[in-house]
Structure formats: structure tokens, C-alpha cells
Amino acid sequence: MKFDEAYSGNVFIGSSPHYEECKVVIYGMPMDWTVSYRPGSRFGPKRIREASLGLEEYSPYLDRELEEVCFFDAGDLPLPFGNPQRSIEMIEDYIDTLLKDNKFPLGMGGEHLVSWPVIKAMAKKYPNLVVIHMDAHTDLRTEYEGETLSHATPIRKVAEHIGPKNVYSFGIRSGMKEEFEWAKQNGMQIAKFDVLDPLKEVLPSLSGRPVYVTIDIDVLDPAHAPGTGTVDGGGITTKELLAAIHEIARSNVNVVGGDLVEVAPSYDHSEQTVNTASKLIREMMLGWVK
């Protein structure tokens, strides 16, 4: 269950070498085959791992340490360059295997299309699945310039698969008018601009339900995360995103998996984005895995 050939050997700080013993499996999905603006997110998982080596293993927010959560870093899936269809098939097959082994999957992207096959696999095990989506963009298009497999389409695919009323988007500040209208007409909840306050309102209604959380790093303002493919001004702060992760941790929802996507390291020479991403991954693990 480890893809040694797919990356240089770095693992996320605190990772256990024992797959069988661990509840959590973190893995990379190094794909940016369909991006429409700036490529480079396929290098995100590797750089997040490298940045984690400078990260403290203790979370003062949650008063927990990484040693309290047994997690295994499986490396990056060896996705075929330029082949989105085969790539998403491989991702879904891999998640099927993790779920069969009763693991908690925590993915690192890669463009946002990689979340679609993960959630599709999750819905097979959890028929009552809810998706919490934090992003700058709606991602509700049916196609982008004629291509249905696009980073602009994953949430539309998810909504049509599990039902729009089971998808909750937060922090949205960009999208076509038709996307917002489709969401409204079909009962999908979109919270524009903000994350924390609308999330607090929603979480009590999701108590006890299985929840998958997908976070696009561009939900953050470019001042906080410039290293991403499609930057969009007017976003939230890192402090607000951390507070949202912790709010989910304190709630009664049953988080069954998650991902962090669209980290494109080459656009941030300060390495602020990958360092923030590694901290977010730490907080997701410590907060959501009981």
C-alpha cells in the first residue's frame, strides 16, 4: 500500500512505517492534467511532506500530538501523466482498497478534480454521505471548454452523485451566474465569502452523519496562500481556516475522510503556502481522527 517508486522517499513528519497498525492513511494525488490557468499542483504533495519536516508535532490548538494518531504515509499514486480518465479510475480503486481496510483516507492534491473519484468511492461505503467543500470557486460546471473531466467540474459531479442537498460549499467568491442559480434551484447550500460563521450554523444539522471534507487551498486569500493555480482575491485568512477545521473537530459530525488540494509550490518562493498546507494537514488529522 506504499508507492515507493512515486516519490523521493520523504514522508510526512510523524508517519508510522506500519500500514496495518494505522487508522489514517495519507496519500498524494499528483495530477494537474486539466487545469485551465497555471499548472504545477502535481508537485504539491511532495513539497507539503518536505515542509512538514520543519513542523512541530504538537498542536497547541487541540492539545494533541501526532504520536497520538497512528498514520501511514503511502506516498504518491503513480498517476499516468496527461490521462485524467485513467487517473481518476486509479484513485477510486485505491480509495476502495483503503475503505475495505477500514482506513481514514486523507489526500493531498493535485488539482481539485482528484476529489471526485475519492468522494465517489466514499459514497459507496457511506450512503448517507455529506460533503463539506471549502473553496474560492463553485466548481459546478458541467464542462470547461468542452471537457467534462475538468478541475471546474468536481463539485457538480459530486452533487449529482450524492444529491445537491448533501453538499455544503463555504468561502465561495467566484463562479458563473448559472452555477449559483443551479445550486439555488437544486437545494445546494453555498455560503459566499465566509466560512466559519455559516459552518457553525450548518454543523448541528449534520450531527452523527458521515462527512467528507474537501479543502481547496485557494479558499485562502492569495496574501496567505499565493502558491496555487487559480488565485482569487478576497479570501479568508489562515486563522479563519484553522478555526473552521477546529469547529468541525468540536462538532458531533462523523468525519470519515478529507483532502487538501490545489497547492502549486512553484508560485510561492517564500514557501508560505506549503508550510501552511502542512500545518492544515496536521490539524485535520489531530482534530478529525478521534
Automatic annotation (TrEMBL):
MF-aspect GO terms: agmatinase activity
The keyword Transferase is annotated on this UniProt entry: no
UniProt keyword annotations, A-Z: Hydrolase, Metal-binding
Keyword Metal-binding: yes
Top EC category: hydrolase
The EC number(s) this enzyme carries: 3.5.3.11
Pfam family, one: Arginase
Assigned protein family: Belongs to the arginase family. Agmatinase subfamily.
Protein name in the entry: Agmatinase
Organism: Bacillus chungangensis
